Amino acid sequence: MPTFSPRSAPLALLALLLATAGVAHAEPSATARAADPVESGVYIGAGVLGASINGSQTGLLGGGLAQLYYETPHAAIGGDVRIAIGGEDTEGSAFQYLAFSLGSRWFPWAGDFTPFLGAGLVYADLQYDDMGEATYFRGGAAGLGGFAELGLAAFRTDSSRLTLSVRADLPFFDVPDDAGGEARYLMPISVAGTFAF
Fold it and tell me: Which of 60, 97, 191, 196 could form a disulfide with 45, with the two C-beta atoms 3.0–4.6 Å apart?
């Protein structure tokens, strides 16, 4: 059973505020202008990711993602599913990551290329085994959290587009040690490339 982490309460508030900021920015006057070359619509995407967690020695763990977003010239709202399994190192340490998220993105420019900021809520399932002699830990937990991301969107004036992003998931819980040790706060970090159409 995951335990609530009080230090994550400010992160939860920040995630909710950022998640609504992008959608609030998409005023009708901003999305209806003929000068905006980006068309609003639903985009389905899939991609690859590399994931790691704070304190892990396993490096980037390979995985994949699928997403569905409704996008306007300056904002997007939707969600994705991310999974990464494996990551065993020479000591036998490994972790698994599964996340379902809902959030929004804000695009400052309505052109072919633009950076973006994103945030929202995530339901994450984390499993981590640290086999180091001095750092032994084996545990897993699932629960709600927030996420924040920074990325670059490309080819937005076409019917398909490419995004590159870095994302931090901020769980609202600690992961207990099945061996009776101290619970740990695990924060997955992922780097992703996605193609959507």
Answer: 196
Considering its fold, how many domains does the chain have in total?
A: 1
Instruction: Tell me if 92 sits within 8 A of 62, measured CB to CB.
Output: no
Range of the structural domain that residue 134 is part of: 3-15+41-196
Is the distance from CB of 173 to CB of 141 less than 8 angstroms? yes
Interval 141-185: pLDDT, tens: 999 999 999 999 999 999 999 999 999 999 999 999 998 888 999
Instruction: Report residue 16 CA to chain centroid gap.
Output: 14
CA 154, CA 188: separation in Å to the nearest integer? 25
Query: Is 158 inside a domain boundary?
Result: yes
Nearest to 173 by CA among 160, 191, 188, 163: 188
Alpha-carbon distance of 172 to 163, in angstroms, equals 27
Q: Is residue 35 part of a domain?
A: no
